[in-house]
Hints:
alpha/beta; TIM Barrel; 8 helices; globular; binds zinc ion; carbohydrate metabolism; Ribul_P_3_epim-like
Amino acid sequence: xxxxxxxxxxxxxxxxxxxxxxxxxxxxxxxxxxxxxxxxxxxxxxxxxxxxxxxxxxxxxxxxxxxxxxxxxxxxxxxxxxxxxxxxxxxxxxxxxxxxxxxxxxxxxxxxxxxxxxxxxxxxxxxxxxxxxxxxxxxxxxxxxxxxxxxxxxxxxxxxxxxxxxxxxxxxxxxxxxxxxxxxxxxxxxxxxxxxxxxxxxxxxxxxxxxxxxxxxxxxxxxxxxx
Length: 227
Ligand code: DX5
Ligand code: ZN
């Protein structure tokens, strides 16, 4: 039985009340805090640097999952590790030396993961499975919250699930399969059925007045998949 985790993206939170928004969503049942870093270079938007991560750290009893949409990656990955990140993921297009960047994140004591845009091939996984704790499949093009789920991501999730199961059956360990973009109560079951175990949701959760109602509804949908 797969463990399912819900990871609200604070990109859609009220930035003027970020600490409270983090603790509120954890009280509402979040498992992970998803933290979107955009640099106005790799993606056409600008969000939060390591100081924000350091600032919210005391407000989060949950792991902080830093999604780096930046180029270059290495210096920022190190800065986020220092700022209290638990998981750091990056896009292969952002790094000249993917294996080195993964090593650097692990050496800093964090879990490491690779992120796949809708048009990025999974072949980037071929030689680095041993260094991965997470694979993140984007179901939107990165840069903004509130976009619609791209349906062909489902096939990619299935393929990533096969790769993970094959690898862990042979070598042991655990690799989480996260999906990010357009995940909502009405499609989370489909995403889970395709093989995902970790679900990022920004606007679906922070766009509603009662976070617990949304997270409970998501868990009810996930329970249907588990049954
Ligand atoms: C998009 C970000 C996502 C985003 C998801 O580039 O990586 O994490 O916040 O937001 P929703 O759930 O609204 O699509
Ligand atoms: Zn993200």
